[in-house]
Amino acid sequence: MLAAAALGLAASAKTAPEPSSPATAGNPAADPRLNGSFREDRGGWAYIHLRGEPRAIGFQHGWHLAVEIDDILKTMVFYFGKTTKRKWAFFREAAERMFNRTLPKQSGASRERD
User: Fold this and answer.
1) Quick one: DSSP state of residue 107?
2) Alpha carbons 85 and 89: distance in angstroms, whole number
3) Which of 21, 31, 65, 104 has its CA 20 to 30 A from that of 48?
4) Where are the alpha helices (DSSP H) in the chain?
5) Domain spans of the chain?
6) Phi and psi, residue 41, nearest 5°
7) 65 CB-side CA count, 13 A
8) How far apart are CA 32 and CA 111, in angstroms?
């Protein structure tokens, strides 16, 4: 289970081990993709409300949980580096080989970074 999570993170992480944090930069109120979404921290839990089309929901999810996503990514980079003696690039390449065969090709517009 942990290995599958790491491969998923490896596939989505373009620059590791120091990914950027959109939650710490910019003005979220100025971005229309965040309309209708919010984050509430209660009792040690992060509750997020997401709204819109799938692309907007994905952006909102990443925005509101960027700090947590960065934290788990750094943890996985460290953990798998110590336990397997392999660099993070190994896991990124393995994830790309696994998922590139099964995921449909995206159009140029949908591949662009937000």
Assistant:
1) P
2) 12
3) 104
4) 2-12, 54-64, 66-84, 88-102, 108-111
5) 2-16+32-109
6) -100, 120
7) 16
8) 19
Separation of CA 18 from chain center: 12
- The sign of the torsion formed by the CA atoms of 68, 15, 24, 107 equals negative
Q: What type of residue is 38?
A: F
- Cβ-contact 66, 24 below 8 angstroms: yes
- Cα 75 → chain centroid: 14
* CA–CA gap between residue 110 and residue 59 (Å, rounded): 12
Q: In this structure, which amino acid lies at residue 14?
A: K
If one compares 30 and 14, the residue with the highest pLDDT of the two is 30
pTM of the entire predicted model: 0.63
* 10: Cβ contacts below 8 Å, ≥ 6 apart: 16, 76, 88, 91, 92, 94, 95
